[in-house]
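can u do me a favor
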């Protein structure tokens, strides 16, 4: 029997239990041990193997005493059996893929874990969605991912370049704020001035980003500062909470877990730096409807959960 006729027989006449039984017998080299492993009777194992041999018109095993060995044809059939079981498993997953489409949602850096977590809870309530969250390096890389179809929906600070296949909508401003340790003397002031940062330690994350270049332009006149750049928003908040320095981050980056440990203040020159939130997604009937629901949940969260200055 050649490979093509063998594969044809497999796909039309065999079942998963027969294939799994064949591989188990080959592994244990014993019908009785295979029966124990599969939690079936030995006659059931014998019947399944006999059915396979009848379908294929070959012998799969030889018996030498108490030992069972694969025949030459049995060895050849091993790879077919393993592959077909994989295909069966994949086919079972198709219904879940159809019922629960994978939606990749991308965020530019600077959103707090609590914001993203609460947002995902809201998205989950929509139902029948499999969500994958991606944090992009910056807004530019996220926009490129949407254009290439690698991410379905992104939330970024830059508007998408003019592309007929991409929908881009402005949501709201995500103003920059100053984050202070709760016991810092500057918390006694409701609004800060740039000179208040003189001789302070200023914390940033990803200082080489486009946003931080704008911030640094405003900080040029601040004197005798120590600069510490960290890799992510969470690290910055922990550093501020531990009185290491003063942070500057977007307001949506304030995680509610730190509400008792940090205070929020504004510096007009910093808060006036443009930092918009745009949603971008590909024109797709499956994505469009879901995008509208996600946008609504984000706007609702933005106006109900963001901590105020205290």
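np, heres the sequence
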């Amino acid at each position: 029997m050649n490979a093509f006729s063998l594969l044809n027989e497999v796909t039309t006449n065999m079942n998963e239990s027969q294939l799994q039984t064949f591989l188990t017998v080959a592994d244990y080299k014993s019908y009785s041990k295979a029966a124990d492993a599969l939690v079936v009777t030995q006659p059931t194992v014998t019947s399944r193997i006999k059915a396979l041999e009848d379908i294929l018109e070959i012998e799969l095993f030889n018996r030498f005493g108490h030992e069972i060995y694969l025949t030459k044809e049995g060895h050849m059939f091993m790879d077919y059996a393993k592959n077909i079981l994989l295909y069966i498993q994949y086919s079972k997953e198709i219904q879940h893929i159809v019922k629960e489409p994978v939606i990749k949602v991308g965020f530019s850096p600077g959103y707090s874990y609590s914001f993203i977590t609460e947002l995902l809870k809201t998205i989950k309530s929509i139902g029948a969605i499999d969500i994958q969250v991606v944090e992009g390096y910056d807004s530019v890389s996220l926009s490129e991912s949407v254009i290439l179809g690698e991410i379905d929906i992104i939330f970024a600070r830059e508007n998408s370049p003019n592309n007929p296949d991409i929908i881009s909508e402005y949501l709201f401003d995500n103003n920059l704020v100053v984050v202070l340790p709760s016991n810092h003397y500057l918390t006694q002031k409701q609004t800060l001035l740039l000179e208040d940062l003189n001789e302070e330690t200023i914390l940033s994350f990803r200082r080489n980003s486009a946003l931080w270049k704008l911030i640094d332009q405003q900080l040029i006149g601040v004197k005798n500062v120590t600069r510490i750049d960290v890799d992510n928003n969470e690290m910055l908040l922990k550093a501020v909470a531990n009185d290491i320095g003063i942070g500057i981050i977007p307001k949506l980056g304030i995680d509610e877990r730190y509400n008792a440990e940090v205070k929020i203040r504004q510096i007009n020159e910093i808060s006036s730096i443009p930092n918009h939130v745009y949603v971008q997604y590909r024109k797709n009937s499956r994505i469009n409807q879901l995008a509208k629901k996600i946008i609504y949940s984000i706007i609702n969260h933005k106006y109900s959960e963001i901590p105020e200055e205290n």
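The chain has eleven helices and 13 strands. hope that helps!!
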